[in-house]
Amino acid sequence: MIKDATSVEIDETIQKAHKAFLMYRNLGGKEKAQLLRKIADEIEALGNELISTASKESNLPEARLTGERGRTTGQLRLFASLVEEGSWVEASIDTAIPDRQPLPKPDIRKMLIPMGTIVVFGASNFPLAFSTAGGDTASALAAGCTVVVKAHPAHPETSNLVAQAIWNALEKCNLPREIFGHLHGKSADVGKNLVLHPLVKAVAFTGSFHGGKALFDLANQRKNPIPVFAEMGSINPVILLPDALKHRSESIATQFAGSITLGAGQFCTKPGILIGVENADLENFIAVLSQQITNTKPATMLYEGIAFNYDCQRRILSAQNGVKVEAEASTPADKGQGLPTLASVYATEFLKNPTLHEEVFGAFALIVKCKHQGEIQQVIQSLAGQLTATVIGEKEELLNSKDLVDALREVVGRIVFNGVPTGVEVCYSMQHGGVFPATTDSRFTSVGTGAIKRFVRPVAFQNFPDELLPSELQASNPLNIWRLVNGEWGKV
Amino acid sequence: MIKDATSVEIDETIQKAHKAFLMYRNLGGKEKAQLLRKIADEIEALGNELISTASKESNLPEARLTGERGRTTGQLRLFASLVEEGSWVEASIDTAIPDRQPLPKPDIRKMLIPMGTIVVFGASNFPLAFSTAGGDTASALAAGCTVVVKAHPAHPETSNLVAQAIWNALEKCNLPREIFGHLHGKSADVGKNLVLHPLVKAVAFTGSFHGGKALFDLANQRKNPIPVFAEMGSINPVILLPDALKHRSESIATQFAGSITLGAGQFCTKPGILIGVENADLENFIAVLSQQITNTKPATMLYEGIAFNYDCQRRILSAQNGVKVEAEASTPADKGQGLPTLASVYATEFLKNPTLHEEVFGAFALIVKCKHQGEIQQVIQSLAGQLTATVIGEKEELLNSKDLVDALREVVGRIVFNGVPTGVEVCYSMQHGGVFPATTDSRFTSVGTGAIKRFVRPVAFQNFPDELLPSELQASNPLNIWRLVNGEWGKV
C-alpha cells in the first residue's frame, strides 16, 4: 500500500539530502561517473520485473518500455562520460597582471558548481526515462546535486523498483543513501511542500501546464525564489510546403500517421497541428492520413484519467466552430483507450479561436488549411511557445523559407526539417525546451548533456592559493580539461 | 525639462525596438562588433562634456568618472572582440548516423540565439558603466538583442548624452535608430509598463532589493513570464583569520578603510561586515581602522535621497542592541553627504537580529566579533545570499580553511582571497551575481563576457540543409569558431 509522504517525512528527507549534499558536492567526476554507471547496471539487473511492472502500471507495451530502459541507462552512461571527462564545468581562467596600469589585474578563476538538493517530479508518460532515474535525476546527480524524487502516482511500484536500484548503487559505491530520496504523493500538498522547503534549490517537472505553472508560481513566491524547470506541453506545429505535398504526400502522410499515434499520442513532441496551403495535394495528403488514422487501433492510455481527459479535449476541439472531423479510428475505443482522431479547420477560424491552440494529449491532430503562404506566417505568429516546429519541404522551397524559419525560431526550441518531432535524441546538441508556455525556462534543455546546466551556477575565485582551488581550476590543469584561459580555449 | 514617458511612448518605443530586432537578430558578429566599437568611439567623442555633466548630476569626482568612462568603453570593446571572434554562441553539432540501429541518428546542431527586446534600467551609482551604454546594454546588443533603456532619474542629462552617442553610432553604421530606445521615468509606472509589455523578453536592473524584487514579481506574473536579472545588494562579508591580524592588522585595516569609503561607500561590493575572533589583534585592527574612518572626509553622495537613507540606516543599525559605534568621521557631514561610520557587535547579537544583516548603502561597516572560529561558521551560515565574500589570512591558515570556503561558496558568486571585494574586473572569468537576495538569478553574471548569456537561449536545428543553417553551424565552419562536434571541442 503506497501512502502519501507526510510533511514530517518530507522535511526529514530533504534535510538528509541537504546534509548528504555537503559531502556529495565535493565528489570528483570519476566517482560521480562510477555512481551513474552503477545505477544503470542496477536498473538492468532488475531484469524483466521492471519491464513487466512498468507495463502493468502504464499500459505501455513491453517492447516500448525495453527501448525506454535503454534510453534511461544510455542517458545515465552519457552523463557518466560527460562528468568523467570534466570539461562541462566551463572552467575559465584570467591570470593576474600585477603590473597593469592604473590598477593590477587580479587572478580570477570561475567554474560551475552544484546548486544543492533538487526535487524531481516523475512524469507519467515516461515511467523510466523521465521518472525516478530519468534525465532529471541523472543530470542532477551528474552535476553534484542530491535528488529527492516525487514518484508519479501512476507508476509507484516501478518507481520503487528504480529507487531501490539507485540505493543499491549508492551502497555499492560506498556513498550515503541519503544522496537520493524517494517519496510518494497523490495529493498536491506533497509537491507543494517539496517545492516550498527552504533547503530545496531547484525543481524539475514534466507534465501538464496546470501542474507546472502552479509549481513555478509557488517557487517564485518563496522567500528565496528558486528555478523551476517545467516542461509543460506543446502542439508542435508542422508546416507542409506545397512542393513536398505535390511530390510525396503519401509518404509524408504515412510518416505523420506514425508520429501522431506513436505511444497513443502521449508524447510532448507529438505533432498536434499540421499547416498547409489548401489545394488538391493537401486534400490528397489529408485523405491518405485519414485512411491511416482510420486503420489505427485505439491503444490503452497511461491511466484512466488521461484517457478521460483525452476524450473530453478531443470532443471539445472537434465541436469548435468550423472544425471538421476528417477521420476517427474505425475500431471503437474501449474504456481507458484513446480514439485516434484527425480534424481540420481553416486558418481564419484557427486564428480566431484560442481553444484550437490547446494541446490535446493523445492521438489527435488538427490540419490548419491556409488560403496562401502569407496565412501560414500569420498562423505561426499566432502560436504560443512550442517545444518543436517541423518544416516539410523540397530542398528548393526550403531554401526560400528563411523568413518562415526565422519566425519559427522565435517560438520553439528545436526545428526539424523533413522528419517528425517525436523521437528526442539524447546527445550533446539536443535542445528540448521551448518558449513559455512550452516550458518555464527556454534557456535550458531537459534532454541531452545540456540538461546538467539546470542544476549548477558559476562561482569565481579571486587570488586563491592554487592548493585551495578546485582541481578544475588549478594551474597545472590536473584533470586535463578544456578551459578558457584569458579568453582562449585550450587544454592548458 | 525631462518628462516621464507616457504609456503611448513606451508602447511605440518597444514596438519599434521589436521590429528592429527582426532585422538586427540576423546581423553577423563583425557588424555587431563594428557597432559596439563605434558606440565606444562616440562616447569618447563626447569629451569632457560627458564627464562634467555626469559629475554635476552624480556628485562623483571627475577622476572617478573618467575611470568609469574607460571601463564603459573598454567593456563595449571587449564585447566587440567576443562577438567578432564568435565562439561565444556555444555551437554544438551532432552529426547523423543514418545506419544506426535500431533507429538512425539525426543531424542536430544547436547554438545560442538572441531573445528579443531587452529593457535595461540605468543604475544611479554607475552613471556610465551600469547605465545607458553600460554592461547590460553592451551585452544585450552584443547578443543580437535590441535595447530600451530607462534612464536613471538621478542622471537624465548624462543618459541623454550617451543615448545620442549610441544613435550617432547606429547612424554611422547604417543601422536603424530603433535598435536602441531611451526613455525617462521618475514614476514607478514607467518601469512597470516596460516590464509588462508583451514584446519585452528580459529585464536587467541594478539597484535596491525593493526595486529589483518588485520588477521580478511583475515579470513572473505576466501571461508569459520573462527573466529579470536584478542585482540588488549585498553586505559582502569579510572573514579576518587570526594569523593575518596578528602579522599585518595595520595594512589590512588601511586596505579596508579604503574599500569601505571608496566612492562614499556606494558600491554593491562594499564590504559591509568584517568577521573575526575577538582578541588583542582584532582590537588593534579595529583601532587602526577606526582611526582611518575618523580621518576620512565625508563625501557628497549620489543624490539627497540616498544620503538621507544612508543616514537613517546608519543610525538604525548603530542603535541596535549590543552595537557599539567604534568611529565616525571627525569632519561633520554637510547636507547630502554621508558620514563614514564603523560599528561593532558580538556574533551572538548579530545572529539574533536580522536588522544587522541589512545592507547600509554608504560608507558604513560593522565588525562582528566571534568568541571562537566555530562562531564564524555560524555567522556565515546565517547569511543571506551575497555577491562576494572575502577571506583575509596567512597562507597556512587559508589552507586549513576549506570548510569555511565550502560554506561561503554556497552563498556567494565570488570569493576573494587577501584582497578587497570592490573593483569588479571586467574579464572572461568574472562572476558578478550571487545567491538570492543578492541577485534574482545566481546562474548569471552582470559583469564580464558571461553577461551576454543573459539575453540568449539555445535553439536546435535538426536535419537542416547546410545552406539554411546559420553560418555558425554550417559544415565548413566558415567563421572558424570553436565548436563541440560529437562531444569534442575543436575549430572544426
TrEMBL record, chains A, B:
Mention one GO molecular function. Answer: oxidoreductase activity, acting on the aldehyde or oxo group of donors, NAD or NADP as acceptor
The record's section on Gene3D superfamilies has: Aldehyde Dehydrogenase, Chain A, domain 1
Q: Name one Pfam family in it.
A: Aldedh
| This protein's UniProt keywords | Oxidoreductase
Give residue ranges for domain Aldehyde dehydrogenase.
2-434
- Its transmembrane ranges are none
InterPro entries per record? Ald_DH/histidinol_DH, Ald_DH_N, Aldehyde_DH_dom, Aldehyde_DH_Superfamily, ALDH_KGSADH
Under PANTHER family, the record lists:
ALDEHYDE DEHYDROGENASE-RELATED, SUCCINATE-SEMIALDEHYDE DEHYDROGENASE, MITOCHONDRIAL
- Protein name according to UniProt: NADP-dependent aldehyde dehydrogenase
Q: Which organism is it from?
A: Thermoflexibacter ruber
